[in-house]
Amino acid sequence: MKIKDIVNRDIVTLTNCEHEPIHIPGQIQPHGFLLGITLQWKIDFCSENVAAYFGISHNQMLGKDFAAVFGVTAENEILAYTNGDEFKDAFPLEIELLGSLFQINIHKSEGIYILEAELLFADQEKLADAYKQTIQFVSQMNKTTSLKDLCALVAQGTREITGYDRVMIYRFDEQYNGEVFAEDCREDLEPFLGLHYPHTDIPAQARELYIKNLLRLIVDIDYEPVPIYTVDDKEGKNLDLSLSILRSTSPIHVEYLKNIGVGATLTISLIHHGKLWGLIACHHYSKKNISPEIRLAAKLQGQFITSQIDIRQSNDEYLSAQKTNLALEQLTSLELPVLKESLEKIVSAPQLLEIANASGVSIITRDKIYKNGLTPSDEQIIDLLRHLKSKKNTDFFSTNKISDHFPEFDENSNFAGIIYHSLGNNGHVIWFRPETISEIKWGGDPEKRIVKDSKGLHPGNSYNIYKQIVKNQSSNWKLYEINAASQYTHTLYNHLILIMLSEEEEKYRSQSEILKETNSELENINWISTHDLQEPLRKIQLITSKMLSELDVISTESISNSLQRVSKSANRMSGLLEDILKYTRIKNTREKLEEVDLNKILKSTIKEMHETIAESNAIIEHENLPEVHAISFLMRQLFNNILQNSIKYASSERQPKIVITASQEPVLIHDKYKVYCHWVRFSDNGIGFEQQYAESIFKVFTRLHTQEHYTGSGIGLALCKKIMQTVGGDIQAEGKPNQGTDIIIYFPCDPEDTLLPL
After folding, report:
1. Phi, psi for 495 (deg, rounded to 5)
2. What is the domain extent for residue 663?
3. Which of 23, 103, 228, 269 is an S-S bond match for 210, by CB 3.0 to 4.6 Å?
């Protein structure tokens, strides 16, 4: 029978250590021995050091039945143990083999039972003692609230239970860089708390083994590996030691530990949601082994942490999440008008920043950018949106390091982190966080973890604290912040939809009113064409017919009187046609609004009406008038019509007086679906009118008085109404019979407003 060892002799260096097959080293540590037994209970693998325990060489054991070497009783005990699945992982089997007491761990690997035996601890701790320590720890654990406090307690408790010189709780980030999150160590040792270690210190295949095998011991860092031998009966025969307690360690890892002066280690994996969250790393500065009871108690410490991660992280974030939820509740309960102007109120609300703990926010809708806080420039926001749109199906995007995704923004400290949400066709919303320059303390320069000498590449031996300045990134977005931003995005989206629907409704309502008004105007024009225009025509026809029939007898004086009557009727027709033309021209005006000083408009209007004002002996008093967004020539026409109207309908019982007042500062005025900023009021002491006619007096060709008493076409105030509609404003009237009339005009707020459709 030919026998061979299965030692992996591939040379391992730092250049290939990431691919080192650490699960099949073919060697074990010497503080125990290993047997690989087939399902037929033949010894197929055996470590070389069995002779040190039994005086029987591995050559003599290999290929033999287990019972032939160790006896039937031992085989039956092991068989009974392997059937008790619920116990074998927690408690090793205590058994006598050839006169010596051992503790045996057994697991199955690729159809082979792997038995790992260590001599029974002479001073082994009793299970009751470990239980007592565990109960004490649980009692103390319940007094902690934060995850950091819990980890600090676990580090202290693990060191008390195990007796190691240093116990550290490692926590990994997304890239598996490690941070010493908690620590307890001898007072004379330099603390490592807060130090960071690069992911290269623990290669990917090592992390995989940490997930499979939760506990790992190195009893003496200076150990000589013991080779494993097997019967050479097939090519490539090997033994997977992923779950082994005694498995030999990578020479690279051993060299690393020697460089930092460690003599023995215990490592316990912290698994959370199926991933390697961290490690309990125990270091001793001389060789050290611990009993199965202590191993189990230490393993339970790790399970205490992993069982509490979600709860403690929730506790850590609870107060902050409460503030975020309160801000979200306040923000969603704001009473907002269904107008685009409400976006100014939304973006200026401090809660919009608080829900994501952001430093700035912008809402982009209808090619307009609303901003608050520390934000990029408009050009940068537009550029950022263009880059975001280049990503396919990007309705949501968040990062704390924008330069990782878009290097163009590498040097912009205003926004290193963003949360972006699309608002569909209605726009976008972005929360910003600025660059947070932070200092990371590494356990040695991460760029110099490898040194080169005449023998090749090796782990560095300098682990002095190395400080690294991290730039171009913000603090991480918490999950509750991302969720709150997402929830409000939905609310904002719905609000924008309501604004759009409201505007569409107003548009159709306005169009309906315009159509109704136009139909009414057409009826009035039809009426005026059949009545007011025909009346002077009939007079002209009658007068001229009479003159023609009396040519022989009519006197020169009579001809003169008749021609004067014809001229008067023709002038009336001309006035009506001119007013209709003015009205039509105003309806078709489409000029942009401009800044108009109403003081200049009033001054020029009074100058033009000087003779009329003098003839009526009217008094005009006025305050300082505001600058508004309007059209100059229409304002002159408006003021002229209003003043003419007040003078025309002056009372015969008193001297005509017109007082003009105005808002001195912009003030928001809500009227139905419109918002205005300035008002001007014309108050006269004329004949007034009944308030029931307050709307009808603005209709075209409407008269409250007969032509005999007050001349005019009835278009004056209708023209005023059209002028105010054209500039996006409004006009109203208040009247009291025999006391006077107030005409109030309202002007729009936004200088960028386009003219309303007429």
Report:
1. -65, -40
2. 589-758
3. 269
